[in-house]
Amino acid sequence: MDWSGGFTGLIVFLVLPSNIIGVWWVVGSPVTFDRNSICRRSKKIKGNPSQREICRKEPEIAEAVIGGSELGMNECQYQLRFSKWNCSTYQNSVGRVLKRADTREETALVNALTAAGATYSLTQACSMGDLNQCGCAAESHGNTDGGKETTWEWGGCGDDIDYGYMKSREFVDLQHRKRSDIRTLITLHNNEAGRAIIKFNMFRECKCHGLSGSCALQTCWKKMPSFRKVGTLLKQRFNGAAKVMGGNTGEAIIPEDSTVKSPTVDDLVYSTESHDFCRPNRKLGSLGTQGRHCNGTSALVGGCDILCCGRGATTYEIQRSEPCRCRFHWCCDVECDTCNRTQVIHVCNGYDYGQRKS
Ligand SMILES: *[C@@H]1O[C@H](CO)[C@@H](O)[C@H](O)[C@H]1NC(C)=O
Ligand SMILES: *[C@@H]1O[C@H](CO)[C@@H](O)[C@H](O)[C@H]1NC(C)=O
Ligand SMILES: *[C@@H]1O[C@H](CO)[C@@H](O)[C@H](O)[C@H]1NC(C)=O
């Protein structure tokens, strides 16, 4: 049985590189956001040379980027909380979806959100003064109102999005693959969309100076949108994602439907229609929607009709006790009663629901 170790090693070596294309933070299973394992892996396989460099020379940058992708994953779970596939890491659902050879809308959203998260947290670390390599953005002096009487000027600490963008891109985008492989093109496009959403939505934040409340002069700096806003915007792109295929030259992606205009930088793209994710299917990363809580009065996403895939839902009344009629006693006690509140919840049935009842 001596050969088994070597044999397993060979399989891992052969299988891993193609599996991690565009999934730089998924190490086998389950999903990981641990810097050590991501950096160790990038050393072992001929992955992304700059990822290896950054891990070695600038571990604190790697830390910020990897922490940011976790931020992206959490946002994914928030944005898809009412969807059939809810970005759960349970049973490595995310890992299984990402590792498939074709890209779907879900793959697009996860890639964009984690790339955006990486950019976001790196830029934020710069502004906080946590990194030696970067700091506040230096806006050009004077302001852009040109000519008009100025009431504000650049100052304060701006978010250095250009640095965050460049450095996170170096780390996240895999550069070892020929760019003629459609899966790689799609992944790179969606990563870029995530970063671009932040760049395109930078805004000016200002602070007033001058005699109390007069605001005679303002200092302003560039600031990133909140990450919730980034998530919400990317969720909108997810809803309108474009189905694409490889172009003739193999170096570009074009819409599958030739009457549709080419996707812009911040559109999300995919190559294969999604499953409905109604039934559990481990291989596909589908957990199924049995047992999910749904909204009994909504006809939209998250409503029982859609979420339960036509299987219906079972309604339960649950009793919650919570503090109520609180009174303040001098000094310093708060005394509350315990009230029982009835809450109605709807839970999606499973496929075997009818059979089980009979
Ligand atoms: C996501 O779905 C799974 C099963 O489909 C469920 O167990 C989990 O609670 C859901 N997560 C959220 C945040 O709703
Ligand atoms: C259910 O959906 C309705 C209509 O979309 C909404 O007003 C309500 O707040 C939702 N209820 C819950 C518990 O989310
Ligand atoms: C709330 O429920 C608990 C047990 O379920 C019961 O002991 C208590 O009396 C109830 N309180 C009220 C205010 O009905």
TrEMBL record:
GO terms for biological process: canonical Wnt signaling pathway; cell fate commitment; neuron differentiation. InterPro entries: Wnt (IPR005817), Wnt6 (IPR009143), Wnt_C (IPR043158), Wnt_CS (IPR018161). This is Protein Wnt. Its main location: secreted. The chain crosses the membrane at residues 7-27. It is found in: Secreted, Extracellular space, Extracellular matrix. Signal peptide: none annotated.
